[in-house]
Amino acid sequence: MNDPAPPPSGPLAGVRVLELGHFIAAPFCTRLLADLGAEVIKVEPPGGDPVRQWGRQVEGGGAPWWSMHARNKQSLVLNLKHPKAVGIVLDLVKGCDALVENYRPGQLARMGLTRARLDAARPGLVVAHVSGYGQDGIYRDRAAFGVIGEAIGGLRYLTNHPPEASDLPPVRVGVSIGDSIAGLYAAFGVAAALFARDRRGGDGRGRTLDVALTESVLSMMEGMLPEYGAFGTVRHPTGSRIATAAPSNAYPTADGAWILIGGNSDPIFERLTALMGRPELAADPRFRGNALRVRNVEALDALIGAWSAGYAARDLDRMLAEADVPATIAYTAAEIAADPQFRARGMVREVEDPAFGTVLHAGIVPHVPDDPGAIRWPGPGPGAHTDAILRDALGLSPGAIAALRNEGVVA
Fold it and tell me: Which domain of life is it from (predicted)?
């Protein structure tokens, strides 16, 4: 593969990050950094990152998710079990601002990449460790994936119907949200650490970031823990409702779809009841004010559901928008891909990928209008940039690179 182009743009242009990550959390972190302009060198094992094979696959190309998951990154296939690999990593670190990894705690040091050796190679290096339970504590050595973080962080228990409504196990969110949240926190931490190091009057020091999947999920759990501490109450699953606001639920439609309606403020509730042809409901003693609507939510949802069931989802969506009531159908991938708002803001983009043809990618978040990042290239093939990285970053000759390849150090 030729050297990638165009050059980086975005607020992190000029930052170089080394990724020693696999699966989701660390690679998600570095994808966010790369989207905003950072140069990311992804170290992959021989055979490539396992995510290349996750999901429905194209013969000979792997999984289309890879196209977005690894976009804007350079791929270096390096056998980290080879004795010479550590030296190559340390040489790469000399030109990097940050290193992101998600091995088990202590694994980096066991490989010979201690903090002391990393600092010696690159004073001021920011190192982000992403793990299941964190780098210390009594659980640090327990195996964990994102789903474990979601469970111990409190999310999995709440993603369910109320206990009295179902005896099925708590459902998965549908994506690896625990990994992605941890990756998001790691990206935020890297940016914050680089700011502290490099800002005017900055101290020039590197930082070590310790990001746990479990803690990342827990930090997103709103008032669950404060309410338990203050009142001793345990928050329970509420299905599709919001326990503290009404109406706010998913309601049936005539064509078998669902529409979500948030009518929990008094003015919005009045507009909703007017649209329903039931303006008297806004003055009904059961529904005057949010607290009473929550108390009588079963009766209220039954009334709204009976009304919504008389219309097709698309018609309801239009009617509610015209009435200025927050609402939407529950989007599938098809609705997302066709949505004009997503298209207008570049959140659904068509990207040409040699392995898959035209692939749809989610856009870049956050949007920085005056210095936007870019999708410079899709997820590359394994080792697509190995020679270029060894040549340009380490100054190795073609003969030296060939020798490393013959020894099984790189591929």
Answer: Bacteria
Q: Per-residue pLDDT tens for 63-73?
A: 999 999 999 99
Domains in the chain, CATH or no CATH each:
16-220+341-406 (3.40.50.10540), 248-252+258-329 (3.30.1540.10)
Would you state the structure tokens that stand for residue 10, as one six-digit string?
A: 């975005």
Distance (Å, whole) CA 278 – CA 367 = 41
> Which are the catalytic amino acids?
179
Which residue, 143, 151, 211, is CA-closest to 177?
A: 151
Whole-model pTM over 0.70? yes
Of all residues in the chain, what percent are helix, strand and coil, respectively (each to 5)?
40, 15, 45
Q: Are 78 and 44 in contact (CB under 8 A)?
A: yes
Burial of 201 (0-12, 13-18, 19+ CB in 10 A): exposed
Instruction: Summarize pLDDT for 98-157 with one digit per residue, the tens.
Output: 999 999 999 999 999 999 999 999 999 999 999 999 999 999 999 999 999 999 999 999
63: its two tokens: 């999984």
Task: Note the helical H segments in 209-249.
Answer: 213-218, 224-231
